[in-house]
Amino acid sequence: MDRILGTLIYARRNLPSGEGGRVLMLHRNKEPNRGLWVAPGGKVEIHESPVECAIRELREETGLIVRRMTLRGVVSEVSPRQDYQWLLFIYVTDDFEGKLSTCDEGHLAWVDVNAVPLLPIPQADAIFFPHVISEDEPLYQARYTYDADLRLVHAEEFVFEGAGGVA
Q1: Where are the alpha helices (DSSP H) in the chain?
Q2: Do the beta carbons of residue 112 and residue 13 sit within 8 Å?
Q3: Average pLDDT rounded to a whole number, residues 46-74
Q4: Which of 55, 95, 144, 164 has the least CB density, counted as fewest CB within 10 Å?
């Protein structure tokens, strides 16, 4: 089984009042996740790092150019299927420039951060989104296990305190 490396990148912008904010989401019109809302992202190409992939994917899918971003999550998704073995690097940026463009993958929309969990999103995203979007939590790490029909059957989160071990 080959592991597929992938990235997600949540572009976030705060409202002028400083309260709440919006995050850029993609309503996919293609598989995988057709009909669901996801963050822009994609597969890491052989010659690039996860950071380079996240920067490239955000630019290709949205037209936005990252100036600075933060790694907020590392998630493994495993299943009995040979074609579904993912290691995802999840980033958040609020420092970007450019004009939003159209996307071949689906429809882009700025969504209120609090409304994201209410959207039709992938099962794992519903679990990790609140952790990765929060600035008050440590790096989110987890392993999600799916059955052969890609239904989530188990989520194991790993919590580390400081530089120490598993809490």
Answers
A1: 50-62, 123-133
A2: no
A3: 97
A4: 164
| Mean pLDDT of all residues belonging to the chain | 92
Please tell me the distance from the alpha carbon of residue 3 to that of residue 85, in angstroms, as a whole number.
Answer: 5
Say which residue the tokens 């920067």 belong to.
55
Highest mean pLDDT among 14-23, 57-66, 158-167: 57-66
For residue 129, the number of C-alpha atoms closer than 13 Å in the C-beta half-sphere is 24
Query: What is the sign of the dihedral through the CA atoms of 61, 66, 72 and 76?
Result: positive
- Is cis: bond before 32, omega within 30 of 0? yes
Euclidean distance between CA atoms 92 and 72, whole angstroms: 7
Alpha carbons 63 and 96: distance in angstroms, whole number: 10
Which residue is listed with tokens 């052989």? 46
Residue 79's identity, in one-letter code, is: S
